[in-house]
Amino acid sequence: MPRKKTMGRAANGNGTIRKKTVTKNGTEYTSWEGRVTVGYDPGTGKQIQKSVSGKTQKEVRQKLSKIIVELDEGTYQAPCKLTVKEWLESWLTDYLGNVKPSTALLYRQQAELYIIPKLGALKVEALTSDQVQKFYNELFRSKEDGGKGLSAKTVKNVHGVFHKALEQAKKNHILRFNPSDACELPRIYKQEIKPLNREQAGAFLREIQGHTHEYLFCIALFTGMRQGELLGLAWDSVDLEHGTLTVKRQLCREKKKGGDYYFSPPKNNKSRVLSLAPSVVRWFRWQKLKQNGDRLNAGEAWEETGLVFTNPSGGVLSYRTVYDCFKRVMKKLNLPDVRFHDLRHTYATLSA
Prior knowledge:
Elements: E1 3-7, E2 16-24, E3 27-40, E4 47-54, H1 57-73, H2 84-94, H3 101-119, H4 129-140, H5 152-171, H6 198-207, H7 214-223, H8 227-231, E5 238-239, E6 244-247, E7 250-253, E8 261-264, E9 272-275, H9 278-298, H10 319-332, H11 342-351
Helix pairs in contact: 2-3, 2-5, 3-5, 7-9, 7-11
């Protein structure tokens, strides 16, 4: 296919503009192309040029003028060829060193399950707020209407991951602005808190008498500690002589099938010291006696972890075990909707 190129004059320092004519199927098509130097290769010293095109010479000159102004102001940003998928993979690998392993795993799951399948092929630079908004809307829309039917909380979590990744892209000068900033998210309705009243708390204490996890449940109710904080509590953090306890870590589990347990700092990365009531000190002493009995029964199979609450062989007491036992107790009390975390709210209510 023949092509004619006619060199035009440099548009008063705005780069070089030329006319291009292409003949296709006997018909001539004319367009204009402009080039401007945007920098120099640090290795070879050769010019780095940016090309723009348009239907008219005026359109091309305007585009070149815009680039020249940005170069003069130091705001010019070279086009980025990275796709959303490529940038997310880079971000997940290189920029999550300061987050917990469980959080990093959750970020990766959100990206691979929702963001990459829908937006992964798009160029990061070409991503618009409208595209991101439609993506969030589709996640929230019911399956009957062709959407994913995710909860508002899950959509917010996906947005949190995507926004962080795009914010880093902005810091790296891959993006001029974060297209997710302008998006509106579905409203979240918080789950109702259901603390026990005094009568229910009394019934709970009576029901767990003699239960395998009696002291764990009692200490949770009278300290307001979170489940992970209790399961990650070590004896060296409990001072029974002075009646104090230091909360400085929690037990976590990788959010995948068969995930390993690990310790991490408590919520908000803040340790705290609790003053223990005499009754709580007694429960800790009884828990120590119970654990000594388990140690004798286990013999050589005993695993010395230093944890306060353990399974019969001294190992980590799983979240699932505690959850199932707690829910069975609540079912007997006709309170099936009460969560373990509601013991923390009960403590706050009864202490007020």
